[in-house]
UniProtKB/TrEMBL annotation:
A Pfam family per the record: UPF0004
Keywords recorded for this protein, A-Z: 4Fe-4S, Cytoplasm, Iron, Iron-sulfur, Metal-binding, S-adenosyl-L-methionine, Transferase, tRNA processing
PANTHER family, sorted: RADICAL SAM PROTEINS, THREONYLCARBAMOYLADENOSINE TRNA METHYLTHIOTRANSFERASE
Protein name as annotated: Threonylcarbamoyladenosine tRNA methylthiotransferase MtaB
Domain Radical SAM core: 149-377
Lineage: Bacteria, Pseudomonadati, Bacteroidota, Bacteroidia, Bacteroidales
SUPFAM superfamilies: Radical SAM enzymes
Organism name: Porphyromonas circumdentaria
GO molecular function: 4 iron, 4 sulfur cluster binding; metal ion binding; tRNA (N(6)-L-threonylcarbamoyladenosine(37)-C(2))-methylthiotransferase activity
Cofactor: [4Fe-4S] cluster
Superkingdom to which the source organism belongs: Bacteria
Domain MTTase N-terminal, first and last residues per copy: 10-122
């Protein structure tokens, strides 16, 4: 089948929900479509193809997915609407029944999107028939590459997919399949291509990236060592790492690296050992505290983001207080707080004691307040210091934004000549309202 002959001249729009991994995969699909002559539709213009990459980490994510699908169908009634991603894998039979949805591809089949769209447009195809392509065991064992660039300066490199953990509240293993990864050689080659394109920062993404090596027998720390040698990439950031997979060896290497930034993101999920056991997490709070202490010993200036879930089934007032007390003693920089969401088919539904929605909301706010205190203190600790900042290309109300090596967001009056550049910058006055950023003085 001649893909270019079928698709050349058509236009497409892309909509992505959820994690950075989804953005990397969407970008790869966009590049593949572009290679066969499909251009991005101009803003405000109708598109021939609409691709919606969905998330299903919570019931809220499902609801956002449904809302987005209905909006896209309404705004682009003549387009071929293709829904992919985790929500498509878990609820494909429901999605394909939505009027206006033409095709649904489950997880592990994103590499087939272009060919399936071409089949759909081919003369032999019945355009009145909807298509559902769920993932099989084979699809959920195959690694599909992905690398994206956002509209600022950074690229997201997919290094791993799937998860072998079985957390009681989570549907991601069902949506994404088993843990698998690309080879170090192939990922280094991807980073080299980013460097050739002028990219300076890469974020390593995946579902459980610390579990890297299931497919190839390699180690995540060796991937990090290899990427550190790629010329032209000045910054790497590591996305979420399970604390039980964060080794001293990795911490020590990042501390001495010239290109891996002092920036960590760790999922705690609960500061109560009782709740961690109900969640089937693979570490106690003592191990988590030890990892944070090790990071701060080796990188005192490091930014540490922490994920927490509140309102898990079984979380009594006393057990939530354990989480609050534990976190109050930890040297994190910011919390990412999520309210527990009931997911069909998960073992968490067997746990007694359901937390009322209002209680979840109150607990969420308590942790948000604690996070704000820590983030304010972290920013203030570096006020007046000079740190390297990578400036983004986008303009926000006459300002350009950037991040220091240790993830402090700073702003400066827009100067197009600075976009994509790294400059020594003094961290200035902090904007207290929601702590959007600190003012910057470029030296």
């Amino acid at each position: 089948m001649d893909l270019r002959a079928i698709l050349k001249g058509k236009t497409a729009l892309f909509f992505t929900l959820g994690c950075k991994l989804n953005f990397a995969e969407t970008s790869t699909i966009a590049q593949e479509l572009n290679s066969v002559g499909v251009e991005k539709a101009p803003e405000g213009a109708p598109a021939d193809i609409c691709i919606i990459n969905t998330c299903s980490v919570t019931s809220v994510a499902d609801r956002k997915g449904r809302t987005l699908i209905h909006r896209v169908v309404r705004e682009h009634p003549d387009a071929v609407v293709v829904v992919i991603g985790c929500y498509a894998q878990l609820k494909g039979k429901e999605i394909v029944k939505i009027p206006g949805v033409d095709m649904v591809l489950g997880a592990g089949r994103k590499s087939e999107v272009v060919s399936k769209i071409a089949e759909y447009f081919s003369e032999e195809n019945d355009l009145s028939r909807q298509h559902l392509f769920s993932a099989t065991r084979e699809h959920l064992h195959r690694f599909e590459e992905g690398c994206s660039s956002d509209d600022r300066t950074r690229h997201f490199l997919k290094v791993q997919d799937g998860c072998n953990y079985a957390c009681s509240y989570c549907t991601i293993p069902k949506a994404r399949g088993v843990s698998r990864n690309g080879s170090i050689a192939s990922l280094v080659a991807s980073a080299e291509r980013v460097a050739l394109d002028g990219g300076k920062e890469i974020v390593l993404t995946g579902v459980n990236i610390g579990d890297f090596g299931r497919s190839t027998g390699e180690r995540f720390v060796d991937l990090v060592r290899a990427l550190d040698q790629v010329e032209g990439i000045e910054r790497y950031r590591i996305s979420s790492l399970e604390p039980d997979l964060l080794s001293d060896e990795l911490i020590d290497f990042v501390a001495s690296s010239h290109s891996f930034m002092p920036h960590w993101h760790l999922p705690l999920q609960s500061g109560s050992d009782t709740i961690l056991r109900l969640m089937r997490r693979r570490y106690p709070t003592a191990l988590f505290a030890d990892r944070l202490q090790r990071i701060k010993e080796r990188m005192p200036n490091a930014f540490i983001g922490v994920d927490v879930i509140v309102g898990m089934r079984g979380e009594t007032d006393e057990l939530f207080q354990e989480t609050l007390d534990f976190l109050s003693q930890q040297p994190f920089s910011q919390l990412h707080v999520f309210s527990y969401s009931e997911r069909s088919g998960t073992d968490a539904l067997k746990i007694n004691h359901v937390v009322a929605p209002q209680v979840k909301k109150e607990r969420n706010q308590l942790l948000q307040d604690l996070s704000q205190q820590h983030l304010t203190n972290f920013y203030k600790a570096f006020q007046g210091e000079v740190r390297p900042v990578l400036w983004e290309r986008s303009e926000v109300e006459g300002m350009m934004l950037g991040f220091t090596d240790n993830y402090i967001r700073v702003a400066h009056p827009y100067d197009a000549s600075l976009a994509g550049q790294i400059t020594p910058t003094r961290v200035g006055a902090i904007q207290e309202e929601e702590l959007g950023y600190a003012l910057a003085e470029i030296l």
